[in-house]
Specification:
heterodimer, A: 305 residues, mainly beta, 10-stranded mixed sheet, 20 strands, 59% strand, B: 241 residues, alpha/beta, Rossmann fold, 6-stranded mixed sheet, 4-stranded antiparallel sheet, binds adenosine-5'-diphosphate, binds magnesium ion
Chain lengths: 305, 241
């Protein structure tokens, strides 16, 4: 692995050296390295590109890293990853995709991640998307995440895209059974002419299921963002979708939350707020000696922290 | 020394132009100065003029003889003016530690940041990593605001009604903090306040009403009259009841 690739791994998966648990590194469309543990197996799919990550029931406190990196220009990668999480397991999965595009052709990674979370299992899923370019090639990522949570299961999903992705369309579909919980935190920043679209759908099918979808984003320069979030309450359930965006320069942001209650005991809330940085926030930080530009940076960094 | 020369500020309102500050001239020497006066008199406006948040319609502001009228908020802050807002600002994601670090101008340790919080009566450990957002109460926010000015340690420190929303116990400590600040920093500590106990520690008291300075002098001259008047006003009220 070269230095650029190691740097990408550090940014997207907090990996320095070999992680202690199971991992699978995919680089430029092929397997670069893999380790499995007694409780976590990783197998290459035989019918299509991608892997199965299989966590044994009852596995506690293990972490799996499955980063994808692309450092060749003009490479388009498509993978199907399935996560089969056994009953009562409690694990953290760190995914992420980093592209270093040094040429003039477009590079891209499209992943379809499907989760099967067993009864009472708990998963924390962290995903970072990052790109940088030396040339004029564009970095494109279109991840799809499909989440199925069985009775009493819990998933917390943290997705971050802060830099360097020219175009992204992120689709997340989820279905929750009885007493299942889904929490999504999305952080997004776009700049220059970037485009980012997020499309969340949550079906609260189970009794006492609950979902909390929170997106915080900053749109700078001429970039644009579209935030779609649909929560369907099909049982006694709680659903909350929240989009909070800062708009700067000539950017565009649209937020379209949609909540549908199909059960008398479904309780659903949506909130969406878009606005520029509050003038009084800038003023306060300037009275501490920051320039307007520094104040802006601090406010944006804090907002996306 | 801070000097205001013939400061006027006019603002457009529904009923035409309103004169909010009318030819205010003032010399603030090093020491402890309290500005008081009725609500709506123009005290906060004056403070914002000093900090550079409001540009006066006319008049000049001098800091140690240097004309700072045309300097920005940032430039004045860097020259040593600090300002604790009457209504502190909330930030999503910025923590108390972040804010105190920004105020002190360097990455300060948790221990040092906590020292400022303790001074304003906040149990530091509970607050240091909290976001300065809507989850903080008005009184908590107000104390954090004061802590940011303490962390800056500049030659001019301006506090706009620091006592508002602060409980009695903390208030006693706060007075000690202001006194200590004045002893250790030198420079000018300027407090906008209605509190008799704060007025009592002032070297100089300035009364602003209706956009102009009504009285200015040693507390010994001003206070008896000020408090006497208040008593009269109260008596009138009781009589009416
Ligand atoms: N930008 C403005 N436009 C119109 N009226 C203002 C503006 N700023 C302040 N005022 C008015 O000026 C007066 C003085 O306000 P302020 O300085 O906040 O008083 P104080 O702090 O003494 O209570 C008030 O009547 C207030 O409503
Ligand atoms: Mg005021």
């Amino acid at each position: 692995m070269n230095n650029t690739e190691l740097e990408l791994l550090k940014i997207i998966a907090d990996m320095e050296g070999t992680p202690s648990g199971a991992f699978n590194i995919r680089a430029n469309g092929g397997l670069a390295d893999r380790k499995v543990t007694e409780n976590i197996d990783i197998r290459t799919k035989t019918d299509k590109p991608g892997i199965d990550i299989i966590v044994k029931p009852g596995t506690k406190g293990e972490k799996v890293h499955i980063p994808v990196i692309i450092s060749e220009t003009g490479l388009s990668d498509l993978v199907y990853n399935d996560f089969i999480i056994g009953e009562n397991a409690d694990v953290e999965i760190v995914a992420g995709c980093g592209i270093h595009n040094c040429g003039s052709e477009n590079s891209g990674h499209d992943g379809v991640h499907t989760f099967f979370i067993g009864k009472n299992a708990k998963v924390k899923y962290v995903e970072k998307h990052y790109g940088d370019s030396d040339g004029d090639g564009k970095n494109i990522m279109n991840p799809t995440t499909i989440v199925n949570i069985d009775d009493g299961g819990y998933m917390e999903m943290e997705t971050t895209q802060i830099k360097g992705i020219n175009s992204t369309k992120r689709v997340t579909k989820s279905r929750l059974s009885d007493n299942a919980t889904l929490i999504i935190h999305e952080k997004l920043m776009t700049h220059a002419d970037q485009y980012a679209e997020t499309d969340f759908t949550v079906d609260l099918d189970g009794e006492n299921s609950s979902a909390h979808v929170v997106s915080r984003s900053v749109a700078k320069d001429n970039s644009s963002q579209l935030f779609l979030s649909k929560i369907n309450g099909n049982n006694i359930c709680n659903g909350h979708t929240e989009c909070d965006a800062i708009i700067m320069d000539n950017a565009h942001v649209s937020a379209i939350p949609q909540i549908s209650a199909n059960h008398i005991d479904a309780s659903l809330i949506h909130e969406a707020a878009i606005g520029k940085i509050a003038g009084e926030q800038l003023v306060k930080l300037m009275t501490l000696g920051l320039s307007e530009k520094q104040a802006e940076e601090q406010i944006v960094n804090g907002f996306l922290k | 020394m801070l000097e205001l020369k013939n400061i006027c500020f006019e603002a457009e309102t529904e009923n035409g132009v309103k004169q909010i500050l009318k030819d205010v001239s003032l010399k603030i020497e090093d020491g402890f100065v309290v500005i008081t006066g009725p609500n709506g008199g123009g005290k906060s406006t004056l403070a914002k003029v000093i900090a550079g948040i409001i540009t006066p319609t006319s008049g000049r502001i001098l800091l140690d003889g240097e004309d700072i009228t045309n300097l920005s908020i940032t430039e004045r802050a860097r020259k040593g003016i600090s300002f604790a807002f009457q209504q502190p600002v909330r930030f999503k994601g910025i923590t108390v530690h972040d804010l105190i670090s920004l105020a002190s101008g360097k990455d300060i340790s948790v221990t040092d940041a906590c020292a400022y919080l303790s001074q304003v009566g906040l149990c530091a450990r509970d607050y240091i990593n909290r976001e300065v957002n809507a989850s903080l109460s008005g009184g908590e926010l107000k104390r954090i605001e004061i802590a940011t000015v303490l962390a800056r340690s500049t030659k001019v420190s301006l506090f706009d009604e620091p006592e508002a929303g602060i409980d009695l116990w903390s208030f006693n400590n706060l007075i000690k903090v202001f006194e200590k600040m004045h002893d250790t920093l030198g420079g000018s500590v300027i407090i906008i306040s209605h509190q008799e106990r704060i007025l009592n520690i002032a070297d100089k008291v300035i009364v602003i009403a209706n956009g102009s300075i009504k009285q200015e002098g040693e507390k010994e001259e001003i206070l008896p009259e000020l408090l006497g008047k208040a008593n009269v006003a109260c008596k009138v009220l009781t009589d009416n009841c």
